């Protein structure tokens, strides 16, 4: 760490790790989800590297593995337990590797002329992968399943070829969900595997409000470190993950993400107090002399539950419902090529039940209603409605993720 949010200063790198040669440029980077001192990175000279930082002396590091592969690595994803990683390249090939860059298996794309554009390791033998043609004018998303001694299988997923993954490994492991946004449309989806389910399914979560007609969502991230508890509709208080959406105008809007039921575990991380006296690099001398008595952060247990300005229980009372087709993975083979757009007719194991799409949560936003916060230069955010689609799954067990906006603190 070079600085703390409690101490003003100039960020200075503690450690610089060169991937490839001095002229190469980085392409992909991914921290190990289980081992916080390890990361993988790739450059535009076909090099893939895995490095381990010395946490006792962060200026030191060691390369666990480095190798030139067949093509540039566009995407990197670690297994949820951090023991292996997969790398997807510009030729559509996916390499499953050990941290020392020892090959476990390599899987070609389902057809020639494709590049990997998104990749997420969901479970032991399952990956969410998106391919596109070299021009990126067409693409498709698939659930890739690779079981021992069996050929790989691709199940089409009803997602655009270009999308932004907002998952974190904790969210994926604890809740079995990958949060996905379709850039431009602002449609927020969950690729999830509810309890007792045998397959992954897509579930519509919400339509993120657009700041203005000329601005649109281009990416999302999930923050698990929010400390303030929120009182939910059933009266319980929980610390919720925050979803942050980046818009094309540079503004940020943030939302809180709640699980569908109290049976889901808490998904958050606790802050670790930092002694400002230990932060030497990155601090201006004048600042360092005045920060000796900066109090440490209060423990997470001291957080006071905060009632949302728009009670969650009230959101359900106002929601009208209309029937819509179930959004789930189509099964079976498609016709007319990989991206022909043909729909499979075999129903998904999770497609039983009726999908309902509610009307907007905020039909109007009067003063005092919680709303998304935009951070941009002189950015005025018009009032927008946030919809809350839901899907009835597993014989009436509703798998719904609620989003409501909050002010950035």
Automatic annotation (TrEMBL):
Residues 32-137 form the Nucleoporin Nup159/Nup146 N-terminal domain. InterPro entries: Nup159/Nup146_N, WD40/YVTN_repeat-like_dom_sf. Keywords: Nucleus, Transport. Residues 349-390 are annotated as: Disordered. One of its GO terms (cellular component) is nucleus. It comes from the Eukaryota. Residues 349-381 have a biased composition (Low complexity). Its main location: nucleus. It is found in: Nucleus. It holds the Pfam family Beta-prop_NUP159_NUP214. This is Nucleoporin Nup159/Nup146 N-terminal domain-containing protein. It comes from Ancylostoma caninum.
